[in-house]
Design brief:
0% strand; single chain; ABC transporter involved in vitamin B12 uptake, BtuC
Length: 304
């Protein structure tokens, strides 16, 4: 915030930039495990599952309160985890079908509840729309401090359980064979995804939060094979996307979420093209050099 004010920004504008960058950083770090674990669609389902929780919290509290709305989104997201886990474990329904069921049913419930709120013409409901497409303009100091606390707790859990998360993310079957509580570790990862979604809702919104969770991690994957480096890069990419989205919406009155996702998508495209080892340009250059080495003996000996 101090840095933002040094560049001539007002206090509220610097606060918004700080909050959006922190949201992006936390989502990027946690999203790495969703990418490695193949849980991108799960993140999408849980983001949509937060919608009815937001609406119920608004109806219960009767006003637009960030703590109440985030608590409602968290409860709804955890319920979504429970439904996916129960369907996958105790029925013959496969995981992709369970994810589709949760995504569609919870989204339908959220749309119905939004209609109820609109028909009631409740005061403050216009601000609720910001949680659909993302809007950081209404964040105050208390909101940013709440988000900061949640983000720090999530990052501390990632740091403390880094080894366990790494093992389950790369080889859950081996973890189970070695006696590790793979199911509990995996469930904890799912809870962290819910936390990332909850703290990212004010910036990216329900509809686009899954992209902020996945895209920075996917972009970071092009640059390194080491998990701790990937986490750092994903955090930086997410922070840059959040900072860019909030900065643009400070000057232009448009929803924050789409701008953040477009910024993250730009980082992803740059990574996909120009990463030194895994980028498309580098791989094409390596393929061309390999073909040249394979054809060189034929040129020297005169064989065809």
């Amino acid at each position: 915030m101090i840095i933002g004010m040094m560049f001539g920004l007002e206090y509220n504008e610097a606060l918004v930039l700080y909050g959006a960058s922190l949201l992006g950083a936390a989502a990027g770090v946690i999203g790495c495990f969703a990418v490695l674990r193949g849980r991108a669609l799960t993140g999408d389902a849980l983001a949509h599952a937060a919608l009815p929780g937001l609406c119920v919290a608004f109806l219960w509290y009767g006003a637009l309160s960030m703590p109440a709305l985030l608590a409602g989104a968290a409860v709804s997201g955890v319920l979504g985890i429970g439904v996916i886990t129960a369907l996958r474990r105790w029925t013959r329904i496969k995981e992709d079908a369970a994810i589709a069921i949760v995504l569609s049913v919870f989204t339908g419930a959220g749309v119905v509840l939004l209609s109820v709120i609109q028909n009631q013409r409740a005061s403050g409901q216009a601000g609720l729309q910001g949680f659909i497409f993302g809007s950081t303009a209404s964040m105050n100091f208390q909101d940013v401090m709440l988000i900061t606390g949640l983000a720090l707790v999530a990052l501390m859990v990632v740091t403390a359980a880094f080894k366990e998360f790494k093992l389950v993310s790369f080889d859950a079957a081996f973890a189970r064979a070695q006696g590790w509580p793979a199911f509990a570790i995996d469930f904890t990862l799912m809870l962290l995804i819910v936390v990332a979604i909850v703290i990212g809702l004010p910036a990216a919104g329900v509809l686009l939060m899954a992209a902020l969770l996945v895209v920075p991690g996917a972009a970071a994957r092009f640059w390194t094979d080491r998990l701790h480096v990937m986490l750092i890069l994903a955090g930086l990419f997410g922070a840059a996307a959040g900072l860019t989205g909030a900065g643009v919406t400070i000057t232009i009155a448009i929803p924050t979420g789409p701008v953040i996702i477009l910024a993250a998508a730009t980082i992803f495209v740059i990574s996909m093209l120009f990463a030194p080892r895994r980028g498309l340009i580098a791989r094409q250059r390596e393929d061309r050099q390999l073909r040249q080495r394979l054809t060189l003996p034929n040129v020297v000996t005169g064989e065809s």
